[in-house]
Design a protein that fits this description.
Helix content: 25-40%
Largest sheet: 7 strands, mixed
Shape: globular
Strand content: 15-25%
Order of helices and strands: EHEHEHEHEHEE
Strand order of the largest sheet: 4-3-2-1-5-6-7
């Protein structure tokens, strides 16, 4: 991973996870711990810029982890690319509060669209992948359903981005470096 300075982070929707939206589940805590561990390893290897598409689930979890790490690491930067400005409107009050707290604390924020568009989430994913040297994903290829996350992973492969994947069930981490 020599020369890698930026990383896009994404993952399956919480509905794909065995625990769903239950962040108190032991499995969710385990996944968040593995995500935090991999972010810290990447940071030790020189990655300073992390980007998320601000989705509820992996995007929010990763952004919260990175913002916490930024308290002691001034070189660490978090870029939040929201699909559209009113993304969190229908989220629960607690999730909206976490979302806006994440945005306030990030290094830079922008929106792909002003208003909701059918391709907004995929476009946000593509933006963070395009501006990054690599991808960290909480992802199981066997769960592919053709959703925006699957399309984003395919896009990262098309761009030959190295990928660090955390399997959402086993937490096994794999790294694939795509040779051009």
């Amino acid at each position: 991973m020599c020369g890698t300075k930026s990383c896009a982070i994404l993952g399956h929707s919480p509905m794909r996870f065995a625990w769903g939206f239950d962040e108190e589940a032991v499995e969710c805590h385990g996944m968040k711990m593995e995500l935090a561990q991999q972010i810290m390893v990447l940071r030790q290897q020189g990655v300073t810029h992390f980007s998320v598409a601000c989705d509820y689930g992996v995007g929010l979890y990763a952004a919260e982890i990175i913002n916490a790490l930024r308290n002691d690491d001034p070189e660490l930067m978090l870029f939040c690319i929201t699909p559209y400005e009113e993304q969190a409107t229908k989220w629960t009050p607690e999730l909206r509060e976490r979302y806006f707290d994440m945005l306030v604390k990030c290094s830079h924020m922008t929106a792909v669209y002003t208003h909701k568009q059918p391709d907004a989430q995929l476009k946000a994913y593509r933006t963070i992948i395009r501006q990054s040297d690599m991808v960290l994903a909480v992802y199981d290829p066997a769960s592919a359903r053709g959703d925006d996350t699957d399309k984003a992973i395919s896009y990262a492969r098309e761009l030959h981005r190295p990928m660090l994947m955390i399997h959402p069930d086993t937490l096994k981490t794999t790294y694939s470096c795509v040779e051009v």
